[in-house]
Structures are given as C-alpha cells and as structure tokens.
Amino acid sequence: MIFAVTIGPLNISSGDMFTVLLSQVGLANADSVSTVKTGVIENIRMPRAVLGFLVGAALGSAGAAMQGFFRNPLADPGLIGVSTGGALAAVAVIVLGGSLLAPVLEPLGAFALPLIAFLGSLGAVALIYQVSLIEGRVIVATMLLAGVAAIALAFSGFGYLTFLADDTQLRDLTFWTLGSLGGAIWDRVLPAALLMGISIIGLMTLARPMNCLLLGEADASTLGVNVEAVKRRAAFLTALGVGAATAVCGVVGFIGLVVPHLVRLMTGPDHRYVLPGSALLGAALILFSDLVARLAVAPAELPLGVVTAAIGAPFFFWLLIKDKRQGMYG
To answer: CB of 46 within 8 A of CB of 249?
Structure first.
C-alpha cells in the first residue's frame, strides 16, 4: 500500500504520505507538504490503494472459500461465473439505472451498485450449485461446465446491454469489463468497503468448519458441523464479497485461483491460515498489478484485468499440467 500511494507520475515520499495521513487525525501538521501532493494522496492515491486492498482481500478469501467449499483446486469466482453474474447485474445498473431500474435504485442510494452486483453473484452461485448438485454431492466437472454456460449467458446479456448503451456508457463499460481501480473515490469506496468487510470477516469465521469439510461431508457431520448451513453461509458471503468487488472495479480474474494455491504452498491446507493469508496476499497482488497497470504504458493505463490475467493464466496452465501428471482427471 505504501508503494501504491507513493509511486506514480508524481513521486511522493513515504514521509509526506504519513504526514498527510497523520494530519487527518490531528497527530501531525501537513503544512510542509505541498497542496498538490496532499490532494493526490487524499483524493486519488489513498482511495485507490484502499479499494485495491479490499478488492484483493475479498477475491482472495472468496477463492479460498470456494476451493474449500467445492473441495477442488480449480474452483474460482471468475471461472465458474460468480464474477460474471455480478458484472452482468452491475452493467444493467449502469445502462438501465437512469430509466427502467430507477424506481428500484433510488432508495438504495450509494449502495445500489454493490447490492445489485451482490444479487447477481448470489444468483450465479445458487444456479451453479443447484445444477452441479447430484444426489447430495457437488460434481466438479458439472460445476465447471455450468460455469462456462453461465459465463456465456452473461456475455449474451453484456452484448444486449452494450447495444442499448449510449456513447458515454459504452466507453465506461468497455474499460470497466476489463477491470480498473481508476474510478476510486471515497463515495464509491466506502459503501463497497462495508459489504466486502462483512464478507472477508464472515469467511474467516468459517475456517474450522471448512477444515472439517476437507475430511468429507459425512465425517464433518459426525464432528458436529451443520454442512448445509456452512455451504449456505459460504455461498452467501462469497457472493457478497465478489459482487461488491465487481461492482466497484469490474471483472478481475484469476486472483481467487492463484492466491489460495500460493498460500497453501506456504502454510498447508489449514483454513485458519489459508483464509487470512489469501486475503493478505490477494490484496498485495492486486496492488502490485495495479501499480504495473499504471506504470507500464504511462501516461496511459492498462486495464487491471489484463495484468492479473497475464499473471494468472500461465499459473492456471501449470496447475492443469501438474494435476494431469498426478492423474487427478484420468
């Protein structure tokens, strides 16, 4: 986060950053910092860094929860359509929010976009779970195929809404669907931060039940775990975090896939470490990717999803090759 705030076209020292931040709570005097730097820190870099931290933490912990929930290393909010469901709902708000959906959205105020995106993600989770549930057991191959179908259906919706969008909305949607932290302002960050915070903290409380689920649902029930209740809570909290993250920064892929694997390599499978570790590493990876996106083609800016896909896609290929050699699918 320090690098995210201090590095950019306008270089800011860490001392200036801390001076400005401490001045907000009356512990320092920011008169020694130029007005330009103070404005950049308070209104541009800091909300962007906070948003990046929260989005990465939400996607990382959601990915770890889904992999524990489905007991499969390939489960990821982006790959099985959860992110796309939230994105479709958010795009509908952007395109139709001023007309068809206005009566529904006006009472929600600043929470409209994250809440509608959450409902879109929750709907995708419910649909995919029900389709892949056969005789009380989730079939992973069916889950992945259902995810592909959900993504295809969502992209059909994207196409229709793009056709309806005006020129201004179209420019916003093109960049938004590839992911970006560029629109981070405090009025957008704070409502989504509340929802993502609930998701992240709530998933942490499921660490012990998820450890029991690693033994299988029958053994988990024997140990006193209400398996169905844990599944419902995990699905709800995952949809809440992913939907809110998607609403504020668009579709950012592969964080939920890559990060939990890297954490497990360091900590083992214990979710008491995997969940918080995935949140922290996810936050770090998003902030690093955003830094690359801002600096790689400066003064222009790459979409965040382009950078995370460049990191995540090779890792996904490596994972498939490794699992193939181990005979997981054979």
So the answer is: no
